[in-house]
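Anyone opening a protein record will find just a pair of labelled lines. With that in mind, the following record should read easily:
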Amino acid sequence: MFVFTSPQLHPFVCLVRFLVRAMASISLLVGFTLAQDVVPRFVLAVNMAGENVSIFRVQPLTGQLMPVPNSPFTVPEIAPWGIAVSPTGKFVYVGTVYSGICVFALDQQTGALTLIADYAIPGGAPEVTITANGKFLYATAANGILEFAVNPWHGTLHLIDGSPFDPKDTYTQVAVDPTTTYAFGLVDNLQNRYESWVQPMQILPTGQLMGAAGGYVYTGVFPEDVKVDGSGRFVYVANWGDSTISGFSINPGSGSLVSLPGSPYSGQILYPDSLAPIPNGRGVIVGGQGDDSMESLAINPDGSLTPVGSLQAVPYYPNSVVVDPTSEFVYSANTLSNSVTAYRVDAATGILQPIAGGLYINGWDPNRIAAVAGTNAPYCPLNTIDPSVTLCAPRTSTASPMRIIGGSTDFGSPVQAMQISIDGVAIFQQSGWGAMDMYAVAPAGSHTLSIGAIDNYGRKFETDRLITVAGSTNAPCTDRGISPVVTICSPIPGARTADSIHVVATSVGISPVASTTVYLDSKEQYSVSGNTVDTYLDVSDGVHWIKVLSTDDTGSSWSASERVISQ
């Protein structure tokens, strides 16, 4: 057993139940720069009453979520609350209301959590924040802010000499800037909530905190959250008690704060409880508990805030919001509905759009949420031009069958259909969803690959790419996490078939699939209850279109159609 000791830490000496395990596979963690093809990977929600962490895998093209195997993962302490993820995404820190901090390793492939260490802190450490360089972690405690150094190999914590910072005050949140230069502590003055404040602090090279010049600045009534914007120039505070957002500019030389023009800002929502800066620095997302809503605020050049788009409903009682590191998706942990909800954010304007089927049942009493990014070629960030189609794969050369990955951007109207063409000839069509991850056959040589889309307004848009096809490969038929979707496993679009075609397909809906029907050249051939098709079609020689259409319990339908040549 190890004990954290410090001359200034006598009220809450930290007993460490140090469960360090062999982790030879973890490499040295130094710095982290998002690669060009970085994609959202996991969303993590801390469930206080359930005493566990739910983990979802993110579908990179749509932002939809799917629980990872064995989720949720147990937290071995009472009332887990806060969460922080290392910049590499390999370590997860969970703060608890009464007992301390738990450290986990996050498996980058499966999303599984493995406990590394469990630090007992009498009085608890509910909120945890890690610096952008991954070197330091700060935790709110009964008295002051606990300061830790992070072991780069194992993710474990070491109490920094002199910790805690400012033990006379009770801090409820800590935010850090992107350069690991300054931190900002939120003090909710329980004796007089009309006089709560933000304390700016310098982060010394050792990780120790030191009060910044100029001292603290007052916030609004009953402040609940503090965040630094993606550019590192501004600090924003959500004031639950008077339904406002306070804004401050950061002095780059000292870290001191100055109130922004027009601050505090009154948005459209009631009782703002949580803030999520858009990483690209263009805006901030606010969750409101009074009217169960979410609002997007654009950050103007002077730091002032302007509402954009319309309010989005959040069922119910959003307690924490996060924008994924690619600035594409927003997720909310909703306490009273035990759910996580998903939205797409326009990276250029900040306008929010609900994601199809974006309500996911979570664990019991979710209170904090985090998002983790990683690289997973050949996925790529979607184009920010509205409307547009992004072709992620193939790049310039590919074997056949070729994997085609594409998505659409359309904040004016949902995309209803997409089409794939090779050299101007359509080979595949889908209706009901606006992203694709599938395989198609193409002859050897140079070709023009086109992906087009059409939305509810009738707007058509497409993208083209010159590709070279050479060699052969396999075409695995697996669930890509997109819904609703029909996946035709056999035959593959563009394939040449015999006169008896073996049709194998599966369908995934947002609601349960009621029936699935197979058409040949627009004529119904086969129908079955449920979502799975396995049948044969007798055809004549020539070009044919096979369509598989599914309908759910609500009457909604979606389909996939493909061109094949029988000979």
